[in-house]
Amino acid sequence: MFTRREFLKSMGVVAAGSTTMLGLSGSAAAANGKSRGHVVVVGGGYGGATTAKYLRMWSGGSVDVTLVERNTTFISCPMSNLVIGGLRQIDDITVSYDNLKSKWGVNIVTDEVTAIDAAKRTVSTAKNGTLKYDRLVLSPGIDFIPGAIGGLDGNEELVPHAWKAGAQTVLLRKQLEEMADGGVYALQIPRSPYRCPPGPYERACLVANYLRQAKPRSKVLVLDANGEIQSKKGHFTKAFEAYDGMIEYVPNSKLLSVDAKARTAELEFDTIQAGVLNVIPPMRAGEIAIKAGLPLINERWVEVDWLTLEAKGVPGVHVIGDALFPAPTMPKSGHMANQHGKVVAAAIINLFEGLPPNPTPVVMNTCYSFVDDKNVVHVASVHQYDAETKQPMPVKDAGGLSAAANDIEGKAALAWAQNIWADMLA
Amino acid sequence: MKLKLALASLCMVGATAPAYAQDPHLARNLAATCANCHGTNGHSQGGMESLAGEPKEKLMQKLMDFRSGEKPATIMHQIVKGYTDEQLELITAYFAAQK
C-alpha cells in the first residue's frame, strides 16, 4: 500500500499534471482549433513507429508528431534470424517510412538525438538543431554495456552481435557463408534480461538449419551465460536434439573476453576457437535514456509509471519498448513495444484533452520462433493493469506455448510480420 | 492501528476513485491490442482473419468457442482467456462498427 510520502508525492504529480493540461488547453488546442500539442518521438522501431502513427490516427491529426530516427528505413529485428539463416533477404524485412509521412502526416527527421532538456522540453539533434516538444516519447531500444566483455568494444565487424537488425544482420550472414565446412559457429547469450528472450535459441536453430544443408560437418555451439534456456525451453530442447548433435548447448557459459582477430572466446574454464563468433553482449536501455539521466533500475532499465509510461519523476518524458524495466513476465519484444506505443499514444491524447490516462490499460504479447525453415513455436501472454501493484500483471491461465512446433504457425509467423509492420507503418 | 487503517482506506479512496471511471476510448484501446496480428482497426493484410465490419454476435461466438475449446486454435484459445467478457464485448462492438 501507499506510504504517506508516496501518497503526497502522487498528489503532487496529479497537481502538476493538471497545471500542464490547463496551460495547453488555454493555448495550442483552444486558440487555433488545430494542434493540440507537439510530440517528439525518438526511435522509429516497433515502439516509436507505432506511437507516431497512432498519435496521428487517434487524434484525427490534431497532435503534431515529429519522429526522429537515424536510419532511413525500418529494418525488423523479428524475422532477421531468417536472413541470417539464408531463408530471406534483408529487403524482405525492410519497410519504408514513407506512409508515416505521406499518409499519416508524421514529420520524419533522419537524425540522432544527442541530448534532452526535460525542464525546457527540448531535444538536441546532431544535424537539425533543437526541437521543442510538449511531450517526448523515447523508444530507444537497447545499447550494449561498454567494457562488459574484454576485447569486444570496437570490434563488432569481426565479432558481430546482429542484435540490431541491419548491417550487422547482413554481416553475420556473410560470415556464415564464408565459414569453411567443419567450422564452429559460436553464439554467446547474455544473462537475462535481454532483448527478445527466445531470439538466440531461434538463431541457433536457423543457423543449424543452414549449416546442415550447406556445411554438414560444422557445429553450432551455444554458450549461454544463463543456467538454462530462457524461453520456450521444452520446445528448443527438442528442436536442438532434432539437429542430431550439430547443436551443442552449454549453460552457465559466461564469456569473459574475446580475441576478435583470432575469433577465440575466453570462458571461465575454457577457450573456444570459432569460425564465426557471434556475441550478444550484456545490454541496457538505449544510450539516450542513460545520457538523459532518466531513473534506472539495476543501472540498466528505465523505471516508468505504467499508466502514462512517463519516466518516474520526469513529467513529459515517456519511455517505451525494450528500454523499460519490465513489469512481471513482460518480455522485451517488438510486439510488446508496439503495445506500449498504443498505450502511450492513448495516454498522451487524453492528457492533451485534459483527461486522465486510461486507468485500465491492457497489453499482450505474441512471439513466434522458427525452429527450422517451416516449423514454429509461439509464446503468448496477456497483461492487465493491476491498480494494487500499479503495473500490468500477467493474467493467470491465459497465454501459453504451442503444443508442438508446427507449420501452420510457420505461416502465421510470416502473416504476423506483415500485419504488425502494416500496423506500425502502413 | 485504527488510525493507520483509516489512513490507508483514505489513501485508497484518493488513489483509486478516478481509476473506476471508464476511459472514453476504452473499446478503441482494447481493440488496438488485437491489431498487431489482425491489422489496424481489424483490417488484416492477409494470413490472419479480418475483424473489421464483422457482426458483433459472430465475433463474440467465435471468441467464446475459442475459450471453451469448441473451436480449435493454435493460439487464440490462450489469448482470449486474458480478457474479461466485458472487454470482449467492447472489442467486438468496436470491430463490428469498423468499415
Please characterize this protein's 3D structure.
The complex is a heterodimer of chains A (426) and B (99). With 426 residues, chain A is of the alpha/beta class. Chain A has helices at residues 4-32, 46-58, 80-84, 98-102, 167-178, 199-214, 233-241, 287-291, 334-352, 407-425, and strands at 37-42, 63-69, 73-75, 94-96, 107-110, 113-117, 122-125, 130-132, 135-138, 142-144, 184-189, 219-224, 247-250, 255-259, 264-267, 271-273, 276-279, 283-285, 296-297, 301-302, 317-319, 362-370, 376-386, 391-394, 400-401. Chain A has a five-stranded parallel beta sheet. The longest helix of chain A is centred in the first third of the chain and has 29 residues, at 4-32. In chain A, 50% of the residues are buried. Residues 1-31 of chain A have low confidence and may be disordered. Chain B is an all-alpha fold and 99 residues long. Helix content of chain B is 56%, strand content 0%. The interface between A and B is large, with 56 and 41 residues.
**What summary fits the major beta sheet of chain B?**
none
Structural class of chain A: alpha/beta
Number of strands of chain A: 25
Radius of gyration of chain B: 18 Å
If you compute it from the alpha carbons, what radius of gyration of chain A comes out, rounded to the nearest whole angstrom? 22 Å
Fraction in beta strands of chain B: under 5%
Could you tell me the mean pLDDT of chain B?
86
Number of strands of chain B: 0
Helix content of chain A: 25-40%
**SSE pattern of chain B, N- to C-terminal:** HHHHHH
Give a quick account of the main beta sheet of chain A: strands, pairing sense, barrel closure. Answer: 5 strands, parallel
Show the largest interface. Answer: A-B, 56 and 41 residues
The shape of chain A, in one word, is: globular
Q: State the oligomer.
A: heterodimer
Strand order of the largest sheet of chain A: 5-2-1-9-21
- pLDDT < 50 runs, ≥5 residues of chain A: 1-31
